[in-house]
Amino acid sequence: MFIDLYASDAVLLPEQHERTTSPLSSLNGVRYGVKNNIAVQGHAMQAGSPALPDTPTSTSAEVVQRLTKAGAECMGSLNMHELALGTTSNNAFFGPTPNPRDLTRTAGGSSGGSAAAVADGSVAFALGTDTGGSCRIPAAYCGVTGFRPTTGRYPRTGVFMISPTRDTVGILANFVSDIALVDEAITGDADFPSCETTYIRIGLPRHGFFTESSPEVATVVEFAIERLEEEGIEFVDVELAGSHDIALAGLHVVAFEAPREVLSFFGFTPTTDPFTETELRLLHMFVEDIASPDVKSIFGHFVDSPISEKQYLAALTQREELQESYDKVFAENKIDALVYPTVGIVAPLIGQDTVSVHGVERPLFPYSISNTDSGSLAGQPSLSLPIPRMAGALPVGLGVEGARGDDRRLLALSAVLEEILTRN
Predict the structure, then answer these.
(1) Continuous H helices in 174-308
(2) Active site positions, annotated
(3) Of the four, 225, 231, 343, 408, which is 20 to 30 A from 388 by CA?
(4) Which domains can be identified in the chain, with CATH numbers?
(5) Is the separation of the CB atoms in 248 and 318 below 8 Å?
């Protein structure tokens, strides 16, 4: 999953490192990796694609600089789904990223290399990015913890993003406390509120979030909820209006912003609407250089069937309405978080692009993000916790989502859930 940054292609690191078995006490000397769309000085930031130059960058991303100041040691770039436009990391240029839990299965994406590197012990933690679930989906598949902060919490300088409205750097690690340590190094926020189990109240948005899960995942998640209830945590059923009606709006935001981010990357000041002939010519050249067929098709559609400014503004309005729904469900139900299956399936096989759930064959990409997409669009902080399973069983993730700006409380609460679920 590490990219060999000094060769013409990518390889997996041949050595395997011992996995972290206890939480980190500090970041001094701790080894970590970053997704290949985050700049590391002296290495090429290609976002997993030959469409971006393989020239080494002169400056690290701001998040990397802050972690360096905290003493952490960056090991280099990690493989990803090309241009972060997918959920499998089946990269046609650098090669697919296998899941350390079962090498025939995908590590997920788009931050698949980040999740896999943590899962196999190559690094103690890794940075990824998250547009619609790209940190939490691979975390769920690989059995690690993946965190998406409130949108805008982390600096974006030196990060290739496809959607400034939706994208954020995220963290993957073995323990919630490790993520809290990294979050503190990035933000300077050391707050870690006390969370007593008898005062924790969690909402279960069963409609939409639970109904489309496979029987295997549904059983594991219900077991986790029952275990948490036994320890005094209160659960209430809630309704999150509009949560599963935003797929088109979310897509429109990315479709409008991604081509303009590419133009900006290459030094253009893009027009608002429509593209000029010069912009279209550059974008078509960019599409030609994309290696992965699925990504080439998606980005090509963005260019050839562009979203208008009117459609884009309508999508942003729907985003605001979704944020209001989140605010309302938290306030009216007096809940601390929402909980749901991160993904409704376990890791699919490498190369699999559809999945059968309840006898219905569904495209993998939209199905994979169906539970994580709404929180991403609204900008909510959220994470995926691995639910302990019997040896040999594929990982299942428990999604935990907090109120915007309440990141440290979400981490503190999730640490309590983690402790209960892993207790013998």
Answers:
(1) 176-187, 206-209, 215-230, 247-265, 277-289, 293-304
(2) 35, 110, 134
(3) 408
(4) 31-246+312-422 (3.90.1300.10)
(5) no
Residue 101 pLDDT > 60: yes
Distance CA 107, CA 155 (A): 26
Angle, helix 309-333 to helix 247-265, in steps of 10 degrees: 120
Query: Are 123 and 145 within 8 A, CB to CB?
Result: no
CA distance 202 to 195: 13
252, 311 Cβ separation under 8 angstroms:
yes
The H or E element containing residue 362 is strand 360-363
The torsion angles phi and psi of 250, rounded to 5 degrees, stand at -60, -40
Q: Decide if 135 contacts 129 (C-beta within 8 A).
A: yes
C-beta atoms surrounding 419 within 10 Å: 14
User: Which tokens belong to 294?
Assistant: 């699925």
Torsion of CA 273, 297, 110, 240, to 10 degrees: 60
45: left (phi over 0), alpha (psi -120 to 50) or beta: beta
User: Within 10 A of 332 (CB to CB), how many other CB atoms are there?
Assistant: 9
Q: How open is the CA angle 402-380-34, to the nearest 5 degrees? A: 105
Query: Can you tell me the distance from the alpha carbon of 200 to that of 183, in angstroms, rounded to the nearest whole number?
Result: 23
Q: Which residue, among 211, 213, 208, has the nearest Cα to 245 in the 3D structure?
A: 208
Question: In this predicted model, what pLDDT tens digit does every residue of 351-396 receive, in sequence order?
Answer: 999 999 999 999 999 999 999 999 999 999 999 999 999 999 999 9
The continuous run of DSSP H or E covering 329 comes out as helix 309-333
Q: What is the average pLDDT across 78-84?
A: 98
In the block, tokens 């030959």 appear at 50
Are 385 and 254 within 8 A, CB to CB? no
